[in-house]
Design brief:
The longest helix is centred in the C-terminal third of the chain and has 32 residues. The strands form three sheets. The protein has a six-stranded mixed β-sheet, with helices on both faces. It has a five-stranded mixed β-sheet with strand order 4-3-2-5-8. It has two domains: about 290 residues, Hexokinase, domain 1; about 140 residues, Nucleotidyltransferase, domain 5 (2-Layer Sandwich). Strand 9 and strand 10 form a beta hairpin. By secondary structure, the chain is an alpha/beta fold. The structure holds adenosine-5'-diphosphate and magnesium ion. The site of adenosine-5'-diphosphate has 13 residues, from helix 9, helix 11 and helix 14. The site of magnesium ion has 2 residues, from loops.
């Protein structure tokens, strides 16, 4: 019993440190709104970049024609072809091909990498068959490039740095659209890059295509980010003429948000210090799928070092970073077997914790619950911050507000999704939350890019 009391104390402290009562979330939303304003005021005005996407028109369903998209962000890239047929018929055809990038090209030269991509596009275009662009028009493509770029227009952006497994050094500082465009010309492909976007902006576009009330797009997957539709006149740092539409999509890069009001624990601090990017992406480290399992692992390790509820375990696996992934904690959290068999399995397989009592397994589920609830509630507070910035969700407002969300965390983790939705209702109030809808919106980086290309077509 003394052993259980020690473990329970660690969990009680975690519960306390992760608490997100409405009053605290209100401060988080207010801080998010404040940082957004600071980031819009001037370049570098906030930790969140508030990147001007140069997307000033979201698709509304009237788009027509054949459009291509290219989705580059991981070890595979995809080429898509989408046939749009206007308001009633919508997407009448949608095809895609996935191509894996040979590892040596991921750290070679820009010419080789973009040459390889362009040749894949050329092959894909060659199979166009009866899908030809009508009337001698030039083909148009939306390019989803999920690396940090500094954009100067809808069709240009210089690469700030590579992330993930890419290290094509001579591409840094170069315009990735020009690189792609040149490479496609060399391959003899008659294709114009009509838009350069990231996956968050694509999600917003795909969401708004399905439902014109959608004004916010959110990614809750491996990482987290949000984009939304802002009034161009509310962006002091926007130079030059205001867009005709009066609107501008802002890519917030909210993953880098941080504020003293965030509930940060000793586990989060250690995770951050030992991460690849210490001090950066603090909000993302509290809420996104890459980290939730890892936070839980750290809590379980602490319990194992303080007492013997897990028995006499070899802690090698418990000490191994990322040995518990978010899909694992999701499986444990949703375990509805009477004896929590799935929890027992995950603990045994992932962490070499073989013998546990039912009480201990319940305690592990509670740790998952605490970490995931904090994540979902903070994500909801972030969304409320954006809504406040654009004056949405106020009592008496007739307008509907749609939030398009993509990402494996939101899609597959039901407890997370439900908690996010109920927290939104809690923060907005019952009346206002009736006018807000949250929708899973998949394939923003594919379909969304094609739609933005259509909305920014040279023929539109
Ligand atoms: P990405 O964000 O890398 O583009 P996804 O949107 O598919 O890719 O999200 C993948 C992430 O979603 C994984 O890294 C994981 O954190 C999370 N995830 C995937 N499956 C589940 C699951 N069953 N339960 C909880 N989270 C999951
Ligand atoms: Mg993704």
């Amino acid at each position: 019993a003394a052993v259980e009391a020690v473990a329970e104390q660690v969990v009680a402290q975690l519960r306390e440190a992760c608490a997100t009562p409405a009053a605290r979330l209100d401060r988080v939303a207010a801080a998010m709104e404040e940082e957004m304003r600071a980031g819009l005021r001037e370049e570098g005005g906030s930790k969140i970049k508030m990147i001007v996407s140069y997307v000033d028109n979201l698709p509304n369903g009237s788009e027509e024609g054949l459009f291509y998209a290219l989705d580059l962000g991981g070890t595979n890239f995809r080429v898509l072809r989408v046939q749009l047929a206007g308001k009633d018929k919508r997407v009448v055809k949608r095809e895609s091909r996935e191509v894996s990038i040979p590892p040596h090209l991921m750290s070679g030269s820009a010419a080789e990498l973009f040459g390889f991509i362009a040749s894949a596009v050329a092959k894909y275009v060659a199979d166009e068959g009866s899908n030809k662009v009508l009337g001698g028009k030039q083909r148009e493509l939306g390019f989803t490039f999920s690396f940090p770029v500094r954009q100067t227009s809808i069709t240009s952006g210089t690469l700030i740095k590579w992330t993930k497994a890419f290290a094509v050094d001579d591409a840094v500082g170069e315009d990735v659209v020009a690189e792609l465009q040149t490479a496609m010309e060399k391959q003899g492909v008659d294709m114009r890059v009509a838009a350069l976007i990231n996956d968050t902006v694509g999600t917003l576009a795909a969401g708004s295509y399905n439902d014109e009330d959608v004004v916010v797009g959110v990614i809750l997957g491996t990482g987290s980010n949000a984009a939304y539709l802002e009034k161009a006149s509310d962006i002091p740092k926007l130079e030059g003429e205001l867009p005709k539409s009066g609107n501008m999509v802002i890519n917030t890069e909210w993953g880098n948000f941080s504020a003293p009001c965030l509930p940060i624990t000793e586990y989060d601090e250690a995770l951050d210090e030992e991460s690849l990017n210490p001090g950066e992406q603090i909000f993302e480290k509290l809420i996104s799928g890459l980290y939730l399992g890892e936070i839980v692992r750290r809590v379980l390790l602490k319990i194992a070092t303080q007492c013997s509820v897990f028995g006499d375990v070899d802690r090698t696996k418990l000490r191994t970073h990322f040995n518990l992934r978010t899909p694992d904690i999701s499986a444990m959290h949703h375990d509805d077997t009477p004896d929590l068999r799935i929890v027992a399995e995950k603990l045994a397989i992932n962490l070499k914790i073989a013998d546990t009592t039912l009480e201990t397994r319940k305690m592990v589920v509670e740790v998952c619950d605490i970490v995931t609830r904090r994540s979902a509630r903070l994500a909801a507070a972030g969304i409320v911050g954006i809504m406040r910035k654009i004056g949405r969700g106020n009592p008496g407002d007739e307008r509907k507000t749609g939030i398009a969300i993509d990402g494996g965390l939101f899609e597959h983790y039901a407890e997370f999704r439900q908690c996010l939705e109920s927290t939104l209702a809690e923060l907005l109030g019952e009346e206002a939350s009736k006018s807000v809808s949250v929708n899973l919106t998949k394939d923003g980086s594919g379909l969304g890019a094609a739609l933005i290309a259509a909305a920014h077509s040279q023929y539109a």
